[in-house]
Structure formats: C-alpha cells, structure tokens
C-alpha cells in the first residue's frame, strides 16, 4: 500500500495566493533582525506562513480581517527594497515581508487589499438584511390583494377548455388515446 502524505497546507480553504516570501523575524540578532524564507499562503480571511511548501504545520498564522497592507520600501536598504511590503495588524504587530520582485510585492498587497475591501463590503449589507422584517406569506392584507389580483387576471383571460389528455406529454411514436 502506498503511504498517503498529508497536504502541505491543510484546511486553509480557498487559496487565493501562495508563494515564497522573506519574512522579517521579531527577534533581533547582533546584526539586526533577520529575513527568513517562508512559504506564505493567503485565503479569504487568513495569512499562513510555513518553513517551506512541504511543511505540514504553519510557523504562524493570523487573521487579515482588521489589518492593512502597503508597500514598504523603507524596510531594506539593499537592491530588494522595492520588493518589501508590510501587514499592519492593530493590537497585534506589523508583519514585514520581501517578495521575489517589486511586481510580486504589489500583487500581494493588491490581493490583501481586495480581500479586506471584500470582507468589509460583505459584512455591511449582511447586517442590514438581518434588521429587515421577516417575510410573512400569511399576512392577511397581502393575501387579500393577491386573491383580488388573481381574480382580475382570470377575468381578462378567455376560458380555454382542455381535454383530459392534453395535460400529458405526447411521446414520439405514441398516439394519445382519444375516446
């Protein structure tokens, strides 16, 4: 029997973007903070980062719901400074990343901003709908109006007499029984 290995990114839902990024560690060494290569995965609400794309357990995870994302060229002084972006999570921390290219950094920021806009626009109308009166199909005034409306419609239509057999579909090659 073949051994079935678990997928590297389990239960993360629909993956919208994934790839290697360098993440700045929180711990500062003698040389300053270090950049570590991480496999990053973004789904509709959560950002995950793993040691590599085959890892089964994330090194970290955080909800993007109240965060903001922006390009952050000030994070590095070397040739990769235009590849940097940050995720600012109020009350938690700021996550700092370096993408493989400036275009990739922009794409990560765009995807996250799109999700944040989507999350905020989804919650507003949903809350408004909850506040509306529930639909009631047994309301007496509506049913009276509907009944009189139907009666009016029926008066305008000519009476059509149907034979009993007319309600059945005629299959090819079969003739309906006429009496």
Automatic annotation (TrEMBL):
MF term (GO), any:
kinase activity
Q: Which residues form the PH domain?
A: 14-117
Q: Which SUPFAM superfamilies match?
A: PH domain-like (SSF50729)
List, alphabetically, the CDD domains matched. Answer: PH_Skap1 (cd13380)
Q: Which Gene3D superfamilies match?
A: Pleckstrin-homology domain (PH domain)/Phosphotyrosine-binding domain (PTB)
Q: Where is this chain compositionally biased, Polar residues type?
A: 141-157
Biased composition of type Acidic residues is found at 129-140, 158-168
GO CC terms, sorted: cytoplasm; nucleus; plasma membrane
Disordered as annotated region, ranges: 129-179
Per UniProt, subcellular location reads as:
Cell membrane; Cytoplasm; Nucleus
Q: What is this protein called?
A: Src kinase-associated phosphoprotein 1
Encoding gene, per UniProt annotation: Skap1
């Amino acid at each position: 029997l073949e051994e079935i290995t678990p997928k590297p990114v389990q239960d993360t839902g629909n993956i919208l973007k994934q790839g290697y990024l360098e993440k700045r560690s929180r711990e500062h060494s003698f040389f300053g903070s270090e950049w570590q290569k991480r496999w990053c995965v973004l789904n509709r609400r959560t950002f995950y980062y793993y040691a590599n794309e085959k890892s089964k357990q994330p090194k970290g995870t955080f909800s993007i719901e109240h965060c903001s994302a922006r390009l952050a060229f000030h994070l590095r002084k070397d040739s990769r400074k235009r590849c940097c972006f940050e995720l600012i999570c109020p009350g938690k921390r700021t996550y700092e990343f370096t993408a493989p290219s400036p275009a990739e950094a922009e794409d990560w920021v765009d995807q996250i901003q799109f999700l944040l806009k989507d999350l905020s626009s989804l919650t507003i109308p949903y809350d408004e709908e909850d506040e509306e009166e529930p639909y009631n199909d047994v309301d007496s005034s509506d049913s009276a109006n509907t009944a009189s409306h139907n009666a009016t419609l029926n008066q305008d239509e000519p009476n059509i007499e149907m034979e009993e057999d007319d309600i059945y579909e005629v299959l090819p090659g079969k003739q309906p029984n006429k009496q």
